[in-house]
Amino acid sequence: MSKMGNQEEKRRSYLWAALHMKCPRCRRGNIFENKSSYYLKNLLGMHRNCPVCGQRTELEPGFYYGTAYVSYSLTVAFSAFTFVAWWVLFGFSTEDNRFFWWLGINGFLMLVLQPFLMRLSRSLWLSFFVSYNESWMAENEDKKNV
Question: Which structural domain range is residue 66 located in?
Answer without folding.
Answer: 7-138
